[in-house]
Amino acid sequence: MNRLLALVLLGTIFTAACGTPAAPAADVPGTKIPTRTARPGPTAGVQSLLRVDEKALDGLEITAWYPWYGVEASLFESFAEDFNQENPWGIEVRTLGQVNFTNMYEAVNAALPTAERPHLVIALPEHALEWNSEREVTELTPYVQDPRYGIDSNDIPFVFWNQDTSGGARVAVPAQRTGHFLLWNETWAGSLGFDSPPDDPQDFRQQTCRAQQSMLKDENLQNDFKGGWLVDSGPMTAYAWLLAFEGGVLEGDDYRFLTPNNIEAFKFLRELSESTCAWQAAGVDPIEVFASREALLITASLEDLPAVARAFASANSTDKWRVTAYPGAGEDALIVYGSSYVLFKSTEEEQLAAWLFVRWLLDREQDARWVETTHLFPLRESTMDLLGDYRKTHPQWEQAVGLLPQGEILPQLASWRTVKVMLGDGFTHMYRVNVPSGQVAAILAQMESISRDLSE
């Protein structure tokens, strides 16, 4: 290992650092989002602690920037139109699409020093933390807790709610949340002698190796190396495996990659490939591979589940498949992440107007429409009461909701914007050059060095 890896990793960071971030099967018992006990909302007529005369909101215009295109953009614009027509204060929301999170980040940075700065944006939490360090973000605790205009945060799962804090301040609130999972072919695994998803790393090894060995029994030589886990070298996969081995990327507020548990995780994963129990192939579609029984396990995000169901239907497959977390020796690992609502500092009236729009977006009626359109997690526990039909037709989505108690948040550091790209690059490099399992410590040492440079 030498500085060549550092140059390879760093070469891609600054071009990609701002990048972006369900169908019928077996019946699944009803699932509620695990969370704390909800409290009733404030009674009508209570006084606000915010120093704003409601009359000053009448006719007030605020700008809201969003990072989506297509269906999500259309729904958000529809939400803004509905709010403009329905809200009792006369607030007018003007929306502007930024296509993706990269454009959003760059556009906001360009606009903040000007009079054209937005009042509200939907951005990644690490972007909000960076803007907060520059003293541009409105601290939202007074709005959340206001007796008149606040919200019941106890109706929002802690793993969603806890992401957007820094030093005791609330720099944002959740806008959307997804998760990163393993998908497991239950029917195929049953024929191999397994009746449950892998529950620890050794079980994962056993199941993937047996699936690969089953491919040697037919006359097709082209699939002899397939069958186990189809490797995904993205940063969320790398991070999830580190957590599954009780490792991680942080020690206090500093990055720390070179630890015994992280070495064990990467060594385990490389040994899977060395024994052909995990495999890679350029240009393959993981979802198609999964539906055609070429991989017993693949990785996926929550929004991928509808495409998986369609692939099984197109393949005329009757196999049952499940969503599962990354198996750990102690606790399993599940990464939960997504975008957040960020309010920038403006006048007290404009800040309240932007908050009232956010509060309306977080109502369970709008939350349910988000779920049905995007297939992501509902942000409120009470939203589940409105999703009875959706739950019946999307059982894997409901399985994912049931895994939320295992969910963990991403590092709450602004530097995660670039460090996550480096993590993915290093993990990819480990597979691309076939680093021997006995030498993975060198990769982790290089990651640690680069991450500390990036966080300065």
Topology:
Blueprint: H1 3-16, E1 61-66, H2 71-86, E2 92-97, H3 101-111, E3 120-123, H4 125-133, H5 141-144, H6 158-161, E4 165-166, E5 169-170, E6 173-174, E7 178-185, H7 186-191, H8 201-214, E8 227-230, H9 235-244, E9 250-251, E10 254-255, H10 260-274, E11 278-279, H11 286-291, E12 295-301, H12 305-314, E13 321-324, E14 334-337, E15 340-343, H13 348-361, H14 364-374, H15 388-393, H16 395-402, E16 407-408, H17 416-432, H18 440-454
Parallel strand pairs: 1-2, 1-3, 8-11, 8-12, 14-16
Antiparallel strand pairs: 3-15, 4-5, 6-15, 7-12, 7-13, 7-14, 9-10
Helix pairs in contact: 1-17, 2-14, 9-10, 9-17, 17-18
What would your notes on this structure say?
The protein is an alpha/beta fold and 456 residues long. The chain folds into two domains: 3-19 and 180-336 and 415-454, Periplasmic binding protein-like II (D-Maltodextrin-Binding Protein, domain 2); 54-177 and 338-408, Periplasmic binding protein-like II (D-Maltodextrin-Binding Protein, domain 2). It has helices at 3-16, 71-86, 101-111, 125-133, 141-144, 158-161, 186-191, 201-214, 235-244, 260-274, 286-291, 305-314, 348-361, 364-374, 388-393, 395-402, 416-432, 440-454; strands at 61-66, 92-97, 120-123, 165-166, 169-170, 173-174, 178-185, 227-230, 250-251, 254-255, 278-279, 295-301, 321-324, 334-337, 340-343, 407-408. The strands form four sheets. Strands 7, 8, 11, 12, 13, 14 and 16 form a seven-stranded mixed β-sheet that branches. The longest helix is centred in the last third of the chain and has 17 residues, at 416-432. The protein is globular. 46% of the residues are buried.
